[in-house]
Specification:
CATH topology of the domain at 261-392: Methylamine Dehydrogenase, Chain H
CATH architecture of the domain at 261-392: 7 Propeller
CATH class of the domain at 261-392: Mainly Beta
Radius of gyration: 22 Å
Number of helices: 4
Structural class: mainly beta
Oligomer: single chain
Largest sheet: 5 strands, mixed
């Protein structure tokens, strides 16, 4: 129960204990809704902002309320340090080990959840790109977002996107238009001037950044796409789908050149989706996360190097040198060697994690259920855990 409900009034402005004359019904209702919204908010993606500083400075968070919010990592660490220093108790309950943190700035990026974000480097400028449930890909100049002083009450609406792309609607019987399919993930190839999106209509799309026009459609999956990554050295993209396959596509022709079945060698044959794909820096290895585990493949031979079953679905992954970091529907960050040996497992704050991101320094950010973000050092210690402040 909220604190002001325990006090018997809260916001009534007079403090008379249980005096109903001071009861603020609207304030109480808002507090209940806010507590519920905080509990169910989900972080779907985190990304470290580009910087010349070798240490991580700013973390960008895409959330289920459609917001894109930036947070100062040093401020979060400082707040957690103070909380630990003043480790006191309130109402005989221990102070929580995470804080509700105000963002540096916030953009209302999408109507509905924001699922992914990427930085696109063009010249000396960075675009902050995001995609979401509304079927849009939107982009803002990062310097403008970084230097803006956007109040939470303004909801970021005064910072207009430089880029605004909308998925096509498909025509059905009698000319009826289907709903705009959502974008679940995006990838970029600055050399080709392209943005790629993984959509809910089982297609991937290629967009030209300069003309803002759709260049190509990749058709072949039989169910909606969860994930996408760009293999820039070969001008290819790789997609993962609810249909249980990973496909490699030629971006020149739009054709599928290879189909990979991550579940092919599993003993249990039940259907499982491909939730996440990642390639290493040499673009020679491919990692596939599924509803039942992890597999790593050689992109030169398309042979499976190892596969590992998991009791919980893998929901995001990435390469760090010759290691693979995974998170999923349990509060654990797992580090695998390239041939499948589990090197470490670290408990993280979100009970279900949807995003793992890596800074060049080795610092990792894990985001997920409850609006929680866990920032973990290269040595495995928790630098800070915070709960994202969303839009009012």
């Amino acid at each position: 129960m909220p604190e002001m409900a325990r006090r018997g009034g809260g916001g009534g402005g007079g403090g008379g204990g249980g005096d109903a004359r001071n009861w603020d019904e609207e304030g109480y209702r808002k507090s209940i809704l806010r507590e519920r919204e905080l509990h169910y908010r989900t972080v779907f993606r985190t990304a470290f902002a580009p910087s010349l500083n070798p240490n991580p400075e700013t973390l960008i968070v895409a959330s289920s309320d459609g917001s894109l919010a930036s947070y100062s990592i040093s401020a979060c660490i400082s707040s957690v340090t103070q909380l630990m220093h003043f480790n006191r108790k309130i109402d005989e309950k221990p102070v929580p080990d995470f804080l509700l943190v105000e963002p540096l700035s916030v953009i209302q990026g999408h109507k509905g959840p924001a699922y992914d974000l990427k930085f696109y480097h063009v010249g000396e400028e960075y675009l902050l790109l995001s995609c979401g449930d509304d079927g849009r890909i939107r982009g803002w100049k990062w310097t403008e977002e970084l230097n803006s002083d956007l109040s939470m009450g303004m909801q970021g609406n005064d910072l207009k996107p430089l880029l605004d792309l909308v998925n096509p609607q498909h025509e059905g019987p009698w000319g009826a238009l289907s709903p705009i399919p959502e974008n679940n993930a995006i990838a970029v190839n600055e050399q080709e001037g392209s943005i790629y999106s993984a959509a809910g209509d089982a297609c991937a799309y290629c967009w030209d950044v300069e003309t803002r026009k759709r260049k190509m459609v990749f058709r072949g999956h039989s169910d909606y796409l969860h994930c996408i990554t760009a293999r820039k050295s070969s001008n290819q993209i790789i997609t993962g789908s609810e249909d249980g396959t990973t496909r490699i596509w030629d971006c020149r022709s739009g054709s599928c050149t290879r189909i990979i079945y991550p579940e092919k060698n599993r003993k249990l044959k039940e259907h499982s989706w491909v939730s996440s794909v990642a390639i290493d820096s040499s673009e020679s290895w491919l990692a596939c996360g599924t509803g039942s585990g992890l597999s790593v493949w050689s992109l030169l031979s398309c042979e499976c190097i190892f596969s590992s079953d998991s009791c919980a679905p893998v929901q995001d992954l990435l390469f760090q040198d010759n290691q693979v970091l995974t998170v999923g529907s349990e509060p654990v960050l797992t580090r695998f060697g390239i041939y499948g040996v589990v090197l470490s497992q670290i408990k993280c704050a979100p009970q279900s994690a949807f995003s793992v991101s890596l800074h060049p320094s080795g610092v990792v950010a894990v985001g997920g259920y409850g609006g929680l973000v866990d920032v973990i050092s290269e040595f495995g210690s928790h630098l800070c855990t915070f709960c994202c402040q969303g839009m009012d």
